[in-house]
Amino acid sequence: MNHHRSDSHALTAAYALNALDAAEREPFTDHLSRCEECRLEVAGFQATAARLAAAVARPASAAMRQRTLAAVEGVRQLPPRSFTALSPVRPRGALRRKAAVFAVAASVAAAALFAGLAAWQNQESRHYEQRARQIEQRLDDVGTVLAAPDARAAHGRTSNGAAATVVSSALRNKAVFTAGGLPAPVAGTTYQLWLDHDGTMRPAGFIHQDGTVLIDGGTADAAAVGLTLEPAGGSPQPTTAPLILMDLPA
């Protein structure tokens, strides 16, 4: 998955917890090499995760605790060693305050860690919901054309051996293209659809291999549908001979 800059910043918590899949981890690792802000944030999340893990570590067994307490009671305390400069002894109150400050800091850091992870999960959830809505809309559009009362179909075969079908509807001003047995395009290329408007070929979407796709653009003024093999990303005009050029069914 490709992420914009804001998306990359949202992945720091997930990265720290090894929650990214391989497709996300590699580009984010590359992003870290260029973003000091994210490196510092990841380091903070990793440290917090380590503290949280330590906080839930398995406690010592009851037998070990009993032996340690018994040994403490029978060991004579040594007198303090004499130094020219002694380190000041912190009063218990100060120690308690320091522990309280550390606990608050750890809590804040933990909250930041889980907030970052929640933000990433929420962002991923919104992304997949949006993709699901887009797919559902495309399926509805395809179904609308196929179920139109004036739907008409035309069949043909591409020069590389695939079976092709075009179904169009004048009422819907749309058409769908179906391919079966279409060979996988070579690396760096893609199959691109075209609509022929009075001899001018206009881009009409892509089909990556076998399947059915809604042809982009209205078909009211189009005479035919074409399919070519183009560089990845597509072309504004065909750069290769058509694999097929089919008249739109009247």
Present the secondary structure layout.
Elements: H1 5-9, H2 12-16, H3 22-32, H4 36-55, H5 62-74, H6 92-146, E1 152-157, E2 163-169, E3 174-180, E4 189-197, E5 200-206, E6 211-214, E7 224-231, E8 244-247
Helix pairs in contact: 4-6
Model regions low in confidence, pLDDT < 50 over at least 5 residues = 1-6, 49-58, 80-89
Main β-sheet, spatial strand arrangement = 1-2-3-6
Q: Number of helical runs?
A: 6
Mean pLDDT across all residues, rounded? Answer: 75
Described by its quaternary structure, the protein is single chain
How big a fraction of the residues is strand? 15-25%
User: What distance separates the N and C termini?
Assistant: 41 Å
The best one-word shape is: elongated
Helical content class? 40-55%
> Major sheet: size, sense and barrel closure?
4 strands, antiparallel
Structural class: alpha+beta
* Count of β-strands: 8
Question: Number of folding domains?
Answer: 2
The ordered H/E elements are HHHHHHEEEEEEEE
Rg over C-alpha atoms, rounded to the nearest angstrom: 33 Å
How would you summarize this macromolecular structure in one to three sentences?
The chain has helices at 5-9, 12-16, 22-32, 36-55, 62-74, 92-146; strands at residues 152-157, 163-169, 174-180, 189-197, 200-206, 211-214, 224-231, 244-247. It is an alpha+beta fold. The strands form two sheets. A four-stranded antiparallel β-sheet has the order 1-2-3-6, with helices on one face.
